[in-house]
Every structure is written in structure tokens, then in C-alpha cells.
Design goal:
This protein is mainly α. It has helices spanning 11-20, 47-83, 95-114, 127-147, 159-179, 191-211, 223-243, 255-274, 287-307, 319-324, and strands at 21-25, 32-36. Among the domains are: 1-93, no CATH class; 231-285, no CATH class; 287-334, no CATH class. It is flat and about 100 Å long.
Length: 334
């Protein structure tokens, strides 16, 4: 029996195999194309060669996922550095990213200084930035002093600004005294201003009493004002009764007003019954009104059954109405 000859893969054949296996990266790292040409043309490939090329193929297949993961980590690190978070790792930044982070840090510092935050570092400001900040700080202090904000520093105001701030504070005090709110200091008012404040407060009290709101003090009303307030109170009570509101006191109504309130309430009940509201009181309807509402409901029910839209109760249909309704309950087109 003839012996079988073992075929060995020679060095030259392995080189030929290597030439026929092409690995190429095209475009970005995420696009990998691998082409094999006639892998078995050389004969029997050795185990070592097959293992080598399998490892290469695995690397090329896994390269996009590894690259994406690394890119995502780098992007997150860049965002953390730009935001000034502790998670930032400056060692992972490229030169261009480092420059970008430095610019973000400078911008954030300028913003912190403009807002008066403790994190502001004045030493990192450029001369134009420091000048602009000083101008903005001064103007903010002037505004705070004019508005009476606690952060105001009067020592930083010029004489002109101090006069404007003092005038604004005086006007604020007059307004507080007129409205009887805030920290009114009558000691700071002139005699004329005091009289004007008293008149304003009197008018405010009359208005509160007429409208039934605020801090009405009837003891401070004059005889004429008391009469006006009483008339306003009576009119308000009448309107509440007509509208059916809770603030109605029917004992204060005249016979005519009581009749008007009752008529308005009756019409309101009819409307509520017609709309099927739970506040409807059917016992207050007349026979004519009851029949009118019954007819309206009959028509509504028939229309709902006819069109197949809305609540339909076939048991309430008249024989002629039931005959007009299709047996399959399909809606009729208009």
C-alpha cells in the first residue's frame, strides 16, 4: 500500500497566502472592510497561520466598537472639563481640547465675577475684562441703592448718585405711607406730605369699605362716606343674590329686589335642568316647563339613536321613531 505524502506549507506558500489576504481601513475607524482572496489556494494552512489571521480579523471587527467607546469617554471627559467638574481628567485632553477648556474656564470666571460669585478670580481677568467688570459692579450698586436693596454700599456712590438714591428712598417712603404698607416712616415726611398721605389713606379706606375688601375701618368714615358705603354694600348684596352667590343676604333685599332675585334663580334652574346638571331642581319647574324639557329630551334621544351618536335609549322611542331607526343601529348620514 503506497504511503501518503504529507503536504507541508512551505515558507514561500505562506508568503503567497499573506499576499492574498487584504485588510483595509476605509474612511473613519468605524468602517472596516476585510477581503479574503482564495484562502485555500495554497493548500492546507497551518494551525499557527490560521490562528494569526483569525486574531487579526477579530481585532478589525472589534475596532469600531472600541473606537466608539473611547470616543464617547473622551467626549464626556471634555464636557466635564469645560463645566469645571471634578470628573475632569486633564491628562486625556488633546492640545486643541486643552485650549478649548481654557477658553471655557475664562468665560466662566468672567460670568462668575459679573454675578458677584465667590468663585470669581479677579487675577485671571484681562485688563478690558476687569474694567468692564468694575463698570458693571458700580452700576449694579447704584441700582441697588436706588431700589433700597440691602446689598447697596452707599460709600461707593458719587455725590450725585447719593442724592438720587436719597430721593428714591424718600419717594418709596411716601408711597408706602400712602398705601399703608411697607416700612412707612412718617417722621421723614414733610407737613404737606403728611397731609397728602392722610388724604390718600382716607380715600383708600373708603374704597376698601365700598368694595368690601381690604382693611375697612368704618369708624374713620364721614357721614356722607358712610352713606355711600352703605349704598355700595346694598348693591353688592343684591347682585350676589341675583347671581345666586353665597354672599347673598336675602333679608336685606327690598320686595322688588327679592322678586328679581327669585326670577333669576328660576331661570338659572331651568337652564341647569335643560343641560342635565346635577344642581337642577325639577320640583321647582312648572308643568309647562317640565313638558318643554321632556319634549326636548325626547328629541335629543331620538336624534342620538338616529345618528348613532350620543346616549340612545331605544325603549323611550315612540313607535314611529323606532321604525325610522335602522335595526343594525348604524348611524344615518346627514
Amino acid at each position: 500500500m503506497p504511503k501518503l505524502r504529507k503536504t507541508k506549507t512551505t515558507r514561500s506558500k505562506r508568503f503567497e497566502l499573506a499576499k492574498n489576504v487584504h485588510f483595509s481601513l476605509t474612511g473613519s475607524p468605524t468602517r472596516v472592510s476585510v477581503s479574503f482572496t482564495k484562502l485555500l489556494k495554497v493548500g492546507h494552512m497551518s494551525t499557527r497561520v490560521r490562528t494569526y489571521f483569525r486574531a487579526q480579523l477579530a481585532c478589525l471587527i472589534l475596532w469600531p466598537a472600541l473606537s466608539l467607546g473611547q470616543s464617547s469617554d473622551l467626549a464626556q471627559n471634555l464636557a466635564a472639563c469645560k463645566a469645571g467638574r471634578e470628573a475632569c481628567d486633564h491628562m486625556k485632553l488633546s492640545p486643541s481640547q486643552t485650549a478649548e477648556v481654557d477658553a471655557s474656564v475664562r468665560e466662566r470666571n468672567v460670568s462668575d465675577c459679573r454675578n458677584g460669585f465667590d468663585s470669581c478670580d479677579h487675577s485671571k481677568l484681562t485688563q478690558p475684562q476687569a474694567i468692564a467688570l468694575a463698570v458693571a459692579d458700580h452700576q449694579r450698586n447704584v441700582t441697588d441703592c436706588k431700589d433700597g436693596i440691602a446689598s447697596c454700599d452707599p460709600s461707593r456712590l458719587t455725590q450725585s448718585e447719593a442724592r438720587e438714591s436719597s430721593l428714591a428712598a424718600h419717594q418709596r417712603n411716601i408711597a408706602d405711607c400712602n398705601d399703608n404698607v411697607g416700612a412707612c416712616d412718617r417722621a421723614k415726611l414733610s407737613a404737606a406730605e403728611g397731609r397728602a398721605v392722610d388724604a390718600a389713606r382716607q380715600q383708600l379706606n373708603v374704597s376698601d369699605c365700598k368694595n368690601g375688601v381690604g382693611l375697612c375701618d368704618h369708624s374713620k368714615l364721614t357721614g356722607l362716606e358712610t352713606t355711600d358705603v352703605a349704598a355700595a354694600d346694598h348693591q353688592r348684596n343684591t347682585q350676589n343674590c341675583v347671581n345666586g352667590w353665597n354672599e347673598c343676604d336675602r333679608s336685606k333685599l327690598t320686595p322688588l329686589e327679592a322678586s328679581q332675585a327669585a326670577a333669576a334663580g328660576h331661570q338659572r334652574n331651568i337652564s341647569e335642568c335643560r343641560n342635565g346638571q346635577e344642581t337642577c331642581d325639577y320640583s321647582k319647574l312648572t308643568k309647562t316647563e317640565t313638558k318643554m324639557l321632556s319634549d326636548a329630551e325626547q328629541q335629543r334621544n331620538y336624534t342620538a339613536c338616529l345618528k348613532g351618536y350620543g346616549y340612545c335609549d331605544r325603549s323611550r322611542l315612540t313607535p314611529s321613531e323606532a321604525k325610522a331607526i335602522p335595526a343594525d343601529s348604524k348611524p344615518l348620514l346627514q
